[in-house]
Amino acid sequence: MTSPSPRRSTPSTPSPNAEVGRPRTWSDHDVEQVIGRLLQAGVILASIVVVIGGTLLLARHGAEATAFSVFRGGSSHLRSVSATFVGAVHGEPGAIVQLGLVLLIATPVARVALTLAAFAAQRDRLYVAMTALVLTLLLIGLFS
Predict the structure, then answer these.
(1) Is the CB of residue 110 less than 8 Å from the CB of residue 60?
(2) Domain ranges of the chain
(3) pTM for this prediction
(4) Is 21 left (phi over 0), alpha (psi -120 to 50) or beta?
(5) Cα-to-chain-centroid distance, residue 99
(6) CB 39 within 8 A of CB 107
(7) Among candidates 87, 84, 76, 86, which has minimal Cα distance to 102?
(8) SS in 3 state form for the chain?
(9) Cβ(78)–Cβ(84) under 8 Å?
(10) Of 3, 35, 92, 130, which has the most beta carbons under 10 Å away?
């Protein structure tokens, strides 16, 4: 018996419908992969920031005694996103933890924005309109 001859690889030819010089469109699989990576990166980044802030918070205030009979609310200067950024830049541990939580909340919002861009690139008007509505409602809910 003879072994079959090895297959020769031939370069693939472009499909007859492909236009030369036209940018490649995103397939559904490409969009899913990019969105998956965005979500992973957002959660990992947010986790790192929270761990750094928590470590600094414990290093600075971990030895303090806690009075459970007295409730002390959070700092009022961390109630806006801009104040959180300013506090994190200045190295305030509570602001760094808060920044990590803001990043965690921003991750799915960024996913919707990226999905909007993908639908726009695919020229799917119905999904662009629906995704734009969802993004608008998310942003209104976050900033009002």
Answers:
(1) no
(2) 30-58+77-143
(3) 0.71
(4) left
(5) 14
(6) yes
(7) 84
(8) CCCCCCCCCCCCCCCCCCCCCCCCCCCHHHHHHHHHHHHHHHHHHHHHHHHHHHHHHHHHHCCCCCCCCCCCCCCHHHCCHHHHHHHHHCCCHHHHHHHHHHHHHHHHHHHHHHHHHHHHHCCCHHHHHHHHHHHHHHHHHHHC
(9) yes
(10) 92
pLDDT in tens, 42-55: 999 999 999 999 99
Tokens of 16: 């007859």
Q: For tokens 């690889």, what's the residue?
A: 9
Rounded to 5 degrees, φ, ψ at 67 are -100, 105
Instruction: Show the tokens assigned to 76.
Output: 């009022």
Give tens-digit pLDDT for 80-133: 888 889 999 999 999 999 999 999 999 999 999 999 998 898 888 999 999 999
Count CA atoms closer than 13 A to 78's CA, side-chain side: 18
The amino acid sitting at 62 is: G
